[in-house]
Amino acid sequence: MIKVKTHGKLYIAGEYQVLNTSGNAIIYGMDRYIHIMIEASDKYLYKSRNKNYYFIFENKSFNFSNNNKIVNQAIIVAFKYLKANNIAIKTFKINIKSELESNKGLKYGFGSSSAIISGMIKAILLFHDVEVDNLLIYKLSVIAQIKAKAITSGGDLAAAIHGGYIYYERYNLEFVLNNIENKDLLNIDWPGLKIEKMHVRNINIMAVWSKKVYRTKPLENVITKKDYKYANRLVKTLKVGLEGNKFKLINKAIAAYDQWLVRILKGTNRYIDEFNIINDVAKKHQLSSKLSGAGGGDSAIILYNNENENSLLENFKKLNY
Questions:
Q1: How far is Cα 72 from Cα 84, in angstroms, rounded to an integer?
Q2: Alpha-carbon dihedral of residues 107, 148, 63, 8, nearest 10 degrees?
Q3: Quick one: pLDDT band at residue 9, thresholds 50, 70, 90?
Q4: 224-228, 243-247, 308-312: which range is least confident on average?
Q5: CATH code of the domain containing 120
Q6: Average pLDDT over residues 306-315
Q7: CA 140 to chain centroid
Q8: Structural domain containing residue 75
Q9: Tally of domains in the chain
């Protein structure tokens, strides 16, 4: 049996802005995981939430027993890579286990879809003795998202694959879309793409769930070029603060990005009251909080020093968070 695990993610800064051309973000790959276990079997199947899903692959075509586009496209893309490299495909079964949702299956907004796509692809390739690296898994995962019509910025994939603090600049989407069937797409540089592992010390992250689940939808509000540039600068400022362990600068940048989100999400019901409650607790400790992700629910984050931890936890416990 081969075991693979991929990270859940928290956006530290960069939401919405990272979707723009030359957009950037700082994302954290958490120590909570999607676990993928793969082993030989006489039939193709994968197990998720204690349910078995079978699929058939013959004559270069697939027949899936369900319509989970995320998982199915991860399998299709992995198989296509194996066939392109003349690797004989073996039957297998996969078991998927998640630490990124509640016992009742409620999602916290930790990027489980991206963790599953990248984990599935990596597990299938390793099962077939393919030497993999993070960039290959990333690119295949982006292609799978595009094929599944579930395009993201790709930052969630970078965090899922690498873990820890990641500084990310988005690839040129138009270039990738125009070359999606190009056999050399995996071997050429993607314009604009930057995935940089950051070195951050003595800074802790607290994720506070809003108790609401939100399924991301396209933002209808118009974001101006001026807004994009401002947010881009904030992300770079936060990067300087995190890598230099400059806590006042970190706090200031987090607060500024949260206010930027308040402004661009105005009238959308995505900046919910729960985020204001979390922010009030943070302010009592001379800290800043911000929503993490698309808003509308899921989680907010607070960056803090060790000295704040017990008091923060006690305050949220009193509020039943």
A1: 18
A2: -30
A3: very high
A4: 308-312
A5: 3.30.230.10
A6: 85
A7: 15
A8: 1-198
A9: 2
